[in-house]
Design goal:
By secondary structure, this protein is an alpha+beta fold. About 25% of the residues lie in helices and about 35% in strands. The chain folds into three domains: about 90 residues, 2-Layer Sandwich (PmbA/TldD fold), CATH 3.30.2290.10; about 100 residues, PmbA/TldD superfamily (PmbA/TldD fold, 2-Layer Sandwich); about 220 residues, no CATH class. The chain contains ten helices and 19 strands.
């Protein structure tokens, strides 16, 4: 009989106590996945995976160590705990390491309200193959598309349970269904590639396979015949597909790990203007059917909805217990972890205020400039926020898209860019980062 994850975490904690740990927390993950890829109308790959992973963190005084395993036999759990305690005794002291106090722990959460698990049964392999075939066929039907590099459908389910010697014990299950298609247009050295994909917790929420394939094909065909844009200072519209990267850079700067190291351009900017005054960035770990939703964080603390940026002003950091202690603050319930490392801070679902105008209206407003649909590499100075990235997309003349462009670099100051963004109204509400297309004035383009 398969042991429950709760039973496994309790067994790990018991083994840790017997081995001499003063406190400990344990995580157990059990997952299964099914992946189907097709190519040229034939099944290319079918893969199924199942497994259980265990992680144990022990503390001896202010010394800690983490170990992991995928073997659930009792003798393995004992050996795992003994090894972890021996490692902790040799580790350097960390004055900020430690579990949460019992009064800080999450209690009485409403797991059903989060809708993290699709009640529908796991799909049959043939059903996933049919979706992948439909996406591929739709992409190939687009004029200019010569081949489909990949069309695939996946389903995954994982269970998580966390327990600690401070009395916390809790778990949840999460499902994920995804469909993706990568199309190639043109021939020879003139080939261009683009894609579309969708991923949802509930399989019934997935967009139609034909729509995904058609969109991938259309995007690839639209990229044919690219040129390099003119060098100079121009407005740049970050398409909704890549606009969330700007918010991602902000979240990295607001992360407790960056702040504790002193490598964040946001340091000393709490309660200072950051975004335009009509924009707010909310974090909401309780949004139903969102991949970044959690009833509690990886240290057993309650998660909550809050404004990271409110009416343009920075209001919150992203902290776990350790980074909060280093900064003399309290945890914000943002601890994340795997089975082989201690917790570290990370954000949950975020949503940026949307505008009233469409993406096309912002393009018309640009006059002359660049629409970015793909970003390559990243050079972000963590101390100053200086920004430089390779980009491709479409050149805009007289407020209309004129031709595709590639092989260009966009550069600017991230703090200044964030402060002069204009949002469109096209964000996808089901994503973990709900960010619309963003127009930024006066960036430097390096092209011809």
């Amino acid at each position: 009989m398969t042991k429950t994850l709760e039973t496994l975490t309790e067994a790990l904690l018991d083994a840790a106590r017997k081995a001499g740990a003063e406190s400990a927390d344990a995580m157990a993950l059990r997952g299964s996945s099914l992946s189907i890829d097709v190519r040229a109308g034939a099944l290319e790959q079918a893969e199924r995976a199942e497994g259980t992973d265990l992680g144990l963190r022990v503390l001896v005084g202010r010394r800690q160590a983490c170990v992991s395993a995928s073997d659930t036999r009792p003798e393995t759990l004992t050996a795992l705990a003994e090894r972890a305690v021996a490692m902790a005794r040799e580790a350097p002291e960390d004055p900020h390491a430690g579990l949460a106090d019992s009064g800080q722990l999450a209690r009485d959460w409403d797991l059903a309200a989060l809708e993290l698990e699709d009640p529908a049964p796991e799909p049959a392999p043939q059903a996933l193959e049919d979706k992948a075939r439909a996406a591929e066929a739709a992409a190939l039907a687009v004029d200019g598309v010569e081949q489909v590099q990949q069309a695939g459908a996946t389903y995954a389910r994982r269970q998580v349970h966390l327990a600690a010697t401070n009395g916390f014990s809790g778990g949840y299950a999460q499902t994920d269904s995804a469909l993706a298609c990568v199309a190639i247009a043109g021939e020879g050295t003139g080939m261009e590639r683009d894609h579309d994909h969708d991923s949802r917790i509930f399989r019934a929420d997935l967009r139609e396979a034909g729509e995904i394939g058609t969109t991938a094909g259309r995007r690839a065909a639209e990229r044919l015949g690219p040129r390099r844009p003119r060098t100079g200072a121009y407005p740049v519209l970050f398409d909704e597909r890549v606009a969330d990267s700007l918010i991602g850079h902000l979240l990295v700067a607001a992360n407790g790990a960056s702040l504790a190291r002193g490598t964040s351009w946001l340091r000393d900017r709490m309660d200072a203007p950051l975004l335009p005054e009509d924009m707010t960035l909310f974090e909401d770990p309780h949004r139903p059917r969102a991949t970044g939703s959690r009833p509690f964080d990886a240290e057993g603390l309650p998660t909550r909805r809050r404004a990271l940026v409110e009416n343009g002003v920075l209001r919150g950091w992203v902290l776990d217990l350790a980074t909060a202690r280093k900064l003399g603050l309290g945890s914000t319930g943002n601890a994340k972890r795997g089975t082989n490392a201690p917790p570290s801070p990370g954000s949950w679902n975020v949503a940026l205020t949307q505008g009233e105008r469409t993406r096309d209206a912002l393009i018309a407003e640009m006059g002359t400039g660049l629409v970015v649909t793909s970003l390559i590499g990243a050079t972000i100075n963590p101390n100053t926020g200086d920004y430089s990235r390779g980009a491709s997309g479409f050149w805009v003349e007289n407020g209309e898209i004129a031709y595709p462009v590639n092989e260009c670099t966009i550069a600017g100051s991230l703090p200044e860019m964030l402060g002069r963004m204009t949002p469109a109204n096209d964000a996808r509400p089901w994503l973990s980062r709900v960010v619309p297309s963003l127009l930024v004035e006066g960036l430097t383009l390096a092209g011809d």
